[in-house]
Amino acid sequence: MTVVDETAVAALPLRRNRDFLLLWTGNWLQFFGSRMSGVCYPLLALQISGGSAQAVGLASAAAVLPQAVVQLPAGVLVDRWDRRAVMRWCAFGRIVVLGTVAGATALGGLGMGLLLALIAADVSLAIVSSLAERAAVRTVVPAEQLPAALSQNEARGRIAGLLGGPAGTVLFTWTRWSPYLAAAVGAVVAAVNLRYIRADLSTENTARHRPIREDLADALRWLRGQRALRAMLPVVTVSTALLQVVMLGLVVVLVKEQGLPESTVGLVLGISGCGGLLGALAGRWFMARLPLSVLLVGGLALWAVLMAAMAWSTGPVVLGVLFAVMNLIGAVFGVATAVYQVTTTPQELQGRVAALSGLVIALGTTVGAFAAGKLLDAWGGRTSLLVAAAGMALTALVAGLIPAVRRARVPSAQTPKTTDPTEPTEPTKNT
Q1: What is the pTM (predicted TM-score) of this model?
Q2: Distances (CA, A) of 224 to 171, 218, 405, 419
Q3: pLDDT in tens, 129-141
Q4: Which domain holds residue 53?
Q5: Residue 277, in any domain of the structure
């Protein structure tokens, strides 16, 4: 086992932290590959099926289903096994899956059944790897640098989202199998990088033969004892669900109500993506100047104002700028809440707590998308946006009235990680 000198690591800036750079770059390439392959799976399903919209729906369902099925067992796996080994096996698995998609596509032997199975496998492996990486960041980065590290991870996702989709479609237009081969190469680099990380990424959890429900029960018991996290989770879930009205409403407002071509949706998303990237890069700056409660409650309140403004705006540029500001705010308090969750959660529970949170938010997003479609069909874009804005304002008000949310703070490097950060720390208090 390699022992890392934590004092030496703490003195290094992130750009010179070898382990963090290896972890960051390898997983960035994997994430970029996921964006490329993800945007091309529906296109490939459309091509294989001869133009069937139902096939596109099945491909989308195969990508969404693992979010509900895989999250919880993945969280248990990440907390039971060496996280380096988990990420490497996931990278190897993705190499096989993506290579199979590329090879079968090139040879003309890919059918819908095999494609759906490969999509589900690819997304499942990506979920497990993402949970393991999030837990590993806390090991390779000193506590005082976690805000900067998670801000860079958020920015990585935003950049991949901006560039991965266009790059994937360009490659897919050139030759059908090339995006999947490129994504497989990214997984190869990630696997190689993990080999050279010096930090010990193993866990102290040796109960590998316990039933999964017992491990999940441990995480639920801990989560119930964290009043701020327990309160913030439904707040974030509801706000994410309401945000689906904006995501779907853009299409309705621009294409259906304003009669603009479908390409304007891409323009709006491109402008908004720039805002999200700026927010991710600025997350650490805001965290250093504003408490977590202000970032969360203030961000939700500003979202409500911006959503109401979008209801009365016309033209893709104006809507894009408003959505960009929303994305900037969302990225900032997204980084802040991620730092709070990582720093307050014990190392041995990182995977399970992140999985439980991710599952709840994913279910909220699914319900929100379904409800948003019904709302937009019934009331149209403008009214739906105003209703969602009112709901967001109410969510911000409720969050601001919760004492645990108002008192929440990101623990410092010296704060005991097993205590509730909303409670005052006493010198004689047992940890």
Answers
A1: 0.70
A2: 47, 10, 14, 12
A3: 988 888 888 888 8
A4: 6-201
A5: yes
